[in-house]
Amino acid sequence: xxxxxxxxxxxxxxxxxxxxxxxxxxxxxxxxxxxxxxxxxxxxxxxxxxxxxxxxxxxxxxxxxxxxxxxxxxxxxxxxxxxxxxxxxxxxxxxxxxxxxxxxxxxxxxxxxxxxxxxxxxxxxxxxxxxxxxxxxxxxxxxxxxxxxxxxxxxxxxxxxxxxxxxxxxxxxxxxxxxxxxxxxxxxxxxxxxxxxxxxxxxxxxxxxxxxxxxxxxxxxxxxxxxxxxxxxxxxxxxxxxxxxxxxxxxxxxxxxxxxxxxxxxxxxxxxxxxxxxxxxxxxxxxxxxxxxxxxxxxxxxxxxxxxxxxxxxxxxxxxxxxxxxxxxxxxxxxxxxxxxxxxxxxxxxxxxxxxxxxxxxxxxxxxxxxxxxxxxxxxxxxxxxxxxxxxxxxxxxxxxxxxxxxxxxxxxxxxxxxxxxxxxxxxxxxxxxxxxxxxxxxxxxxxxxxxxxxxxxxxxxxxxxxxxxxxxxxxxxxxxxxxxxxxxxxxxxxxxxxxxxxxxxxxxxxxxxxxxxxxxxxxxxxxxxxxxxxxxxxxxxxxxxxxxxxxxxxxxxxxxxxxxxxxxxxxxxxxxxxxxxxxxxxxxxxxxxxxxxxxxxxxxxxxxxxxxxxxxxxxxxxxxxxxxxxxxxxxxxxxxxxxxxxxxxxxxxxxxxxxxxxxxxxxxxxxxxxxxxxxxxxxxxxxxxxxxxxxxx
Length: 698
Prior knowledge:
- The strands form six sheets. A five-stranded mixed β-sheet has the order 6-7-8-11-12, sandwiched between helices. A four-stranded mixed β-sheet has the order 15-16-17-18. A three-stranded mixed β-sheet has the order 3-4-5.
- The protein is of the alpha/beta class.
- It is built from 23 helices and 18 strands.
- About 50% of the residues lie in helices and about 15% in strands.
């Protein structure tokens, strides 16, 4: 088929699918106009949650994200936008039948909508970056789960606490009570039914083992737990949280009270932005309920932002300022945990009074500087299928602007030579930093909203026109890095490799955790493109799966897994750990050089050190290790020191020895590494020098 034939077929397919989708939606809206809508929601939630349990030992592990079509959030949104005027009475058997019918209908509806998107893409048929990205953005718009479960409270608390007085003024509830209530809802959605079912199982075991089991002897709390497992009370927000009714009502839609934001043919489709994004609860029969985990966790912070701003119109400017300050403090706190002993400087200015520039955060760690910009603005709610222009504008605001600010600050640092002057908002000097020994500068823009898919490959997006060497990371992923990296030097080495990978035009990584997964698997992972033809591009996916399995279990009752880690020989791991613990001021530079080693080179260095220690113990004389080769091979010479050795080289003798090798091999550069061990063969210090020779003229 030629291009026009494909477009015509796609256009006809879109028209037919749109008719089928809208007919099915109208059918669903008719049969959900019943008097027990909260029971229907619970039934659908039960079906989707418990349809695919995964047994692991004695535990059943449930993954709500196995259900791609998200039937609970869509049903809640439909009910909120559909007045139950029919009020047909239904029995328990009717509810069960309707629930299964709805799950079937909604699944068909969802996948017809996906097929419609494919036809729409084929109809465009221009293969442009814009149409491709719009299609991908729409697919990601339907993905749920911004952050791992164990990070939810860490994300929410600092952002909400910044508005404590406003919560108290408007609703008579403290910010701490808001966070505590949110946590209770989250726990109820995750564990409530499982705990009740577990209580039921235990009661059944007692009855089975007892000769004469008396049902009246069952403790009241066990009876209540079992009842809750099969009752809507488990989802009752008032019962769970003790929040004021006014606050709960403001976060709830009653049937018929909401509207879908999208207008026109796709108004009620499951692939557009749903009303549940604005209000996570639904009020039926005087009580508010929360049924969907991901709609709550992904949208709660922005939902309460919208709530406060529609209640207090004058608070908008203060919200933005407090949100900015809270998010910057949050990022600063994360880096202080990840880089112990670092010095941080917030709200920095430079330039002139007429043309001043601002930097959110500057961090000094050993011989490295981190230039950080924090973007706390919210991303657009518009679905890409109809509002891609707003997506592009927000990407430019959240990624492009921060990228430019980071690059400007980096250039200012480089121009500053040895002394970096930081100014306050009045352009008065507030600090002068000695940066004479800085060897690495890392630039990061951090977003409060998760725009992972585009942020992970931002450098590859033509419409952004970004400066090189600036990584964009969501705060969710930064929190994940804090949990993952045990050694700050490895974290900084990862940032270095991520920056290098971002500059490789033939490597496309569209997920931040895939960056980390590739780093774990391949270390200098941008080099993976060397394994394919020069006219080919590698599109990376699936490298985060092992990380997902590990992180999804943290903080749960599920069996815990071993953390995925790079393979390192014992001696090599010891070198990196000693560089950290010894306080070496050049630790970032030295560790970065060593961590670049391939698996084979790491083994060779470790084996060489072990061999030197054994031989020196026998001979009492110092052994020198040298590595040489052509092309990109390592060129280094290593000296191993032990306290019991009497005949060792001085600094000058080591320099002369290495310089002789460099001259003999006509090398431009050679590394001098020295390792000092105590009598128990425990490594004490690591030092490195770069010896340079002639260039282009041996």
